[in-house]
Design goal:
Distance between the termini: 15 Å
Structural class: alpha/beta
Number of helices: 6
Strand content: 25-35%
Largest sheet: 5 strands, mixed, barrel
Radius of gyration: 17 Å
Shape: globular
Helix content: 25-40%
């Protein structure tokens, strides 16, 4: 990405949680939380490094505020990434999963409230929330690069705790292939605003191991290490993907 300029999120009103401390969220790969403007393959790109999670905020409006601002700036396609726990026994740490659909188990929705109605339809249809064309480009590119990847349904939970064994069993029973604490609020807000959406997760932990007699504690440190391990692979993928869309 050819960077033109960047702005620290902590200096932008409402881009960080309402607290006196510095923005609490740092990107999984360890970069500074910032809004980056640049170009990739001749296309104008706005990259949001770092995000607020629902468990860090007073409301969903804080979580999706950056998405709404970018849409008002003219962004037409939103490509979301995150770290997730793999629920499929075929998944390993460092694999990728193209998100085909989601189940919102956060107990909240960013469109609740009167203000959201000013931005889009009262009852937006999420049947095809994830753009099929963009997902096909992702799949083709992952295959070309020979990266280990999966496709499936992503479950969004509020966090900040990791899942219990019973919750892992439940998520598998209802058809989820991965679970995480982010991404879905942004998807809902983006679809509400008419943006094309695609999303991909890096599998940074494998909670399914608990159900297979391989107990292994999940930790933020381990998740960060896994994300850093595949950073170069993912950067190559994202660069090529953005050039094709």
């Amino acid at each position: 990405m050819d960077v033109h300029f960047s702005l620290p999120l902590g200096e932008l009103p409402y881009f960080s949680a309402r607290r006196d401390a510095a923005p609490p969220t740092q990107p999984a790969l360890g970069a500074q939380s910032q809004l980056v403007f640049g170009t990739i393959g001749g296309k104008s790109v706005v990259a949001l490094q770092g995000r607020l999670h629902y468990y860090e905020c007073e409301s969903m409006n804080e979580v999706v505020f950056p998405i709404r601002i970018m849409a008002l700036m003219g962004v037409q396609s939103l490509i979301l990434t995150n770290s997730a726990g793999g629920l499929d026994s075929k998944m390993s740490e460092g694999d990728f999963m193209i998100i085909e659909d989601h189940i919102n188990l956060m107990g909240a929705n960013p469109l609740i409230g009167t203000r959201a109605r000013e931005l889009g339809p009262h009852n937006p249809d999420l049947t095809l929330a994830y753009d099929e064309r963009l997902l096909k480009i992702m799949e083709d590119l992952m295959t070309e690069l020979s990266y280990p990847f999966h496709k499936g349904v992503y479950a969004a939970v509020s966090g900040p705790t990791f899942e219990t064994k019973a919750e892992v069993r439940y998520l598998k029973m209802i058809g989820c292939a991965a679970v995480g604490m982010s991404l879905v609020p942004e998807v809902i807000a983006a679809v509400h605003l008419g943006l094309r959406v695609a999303a991909i997760s890096c599998i940074t932990s494998v909670p399914h191991a608990y159900l297979e007699g391989r107990p292994r504690k999940q930790s933020s440190e381990e998740i960060g290490w896994t994300a850093r391990r595949v950073e170069s692979q993912f950067s190559r993928f994202m660069q090529s993907f953005l050039e094709r869309i």
